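Sharing a chain and its predicted structure for anyone who wants a worked example. Both blocks are below, sequence first, tokens second.
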Amino acid sequence: MERLCPIEVDLHGISPLNLAFVGDGVYDLMVRERLVCLANRPNKDLHQLAVKQVRAEAQAAALDKLMPLLSEEEAAVYRRGRNAHTSRSGGAYHKATGLEALFGYLYLAGRLDRVQELFGYITQEDEVD
């Protein structure tokens, strides 16, 4: 698939926090899509379930599941995001930022198949209340 950026951009030159900015939206949308497809629920319930899955602790746990599957390039993007200087601290928050940077990178690179594959692996055993 072609890159989704409307202009030619060196994805390695984009700030990891900018990649995480995009990846946060991508991840959030995938969580919301999955929840809606699993069951027709009231919006309040959907929101509460989504918040549980996109919070830093849940994303950090998701990253732990993915690490063995990442290519060297993907792991390097993750590490750039994890190590980026943010206003928040804590291991879970840094892991979550790394995961979001990875999702943003893959999305902007047009690798939606890989985004879906990784997200599917994260959620394959999850049960939604």
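Comments welcome. The chain has a mean pLDDT of 89.
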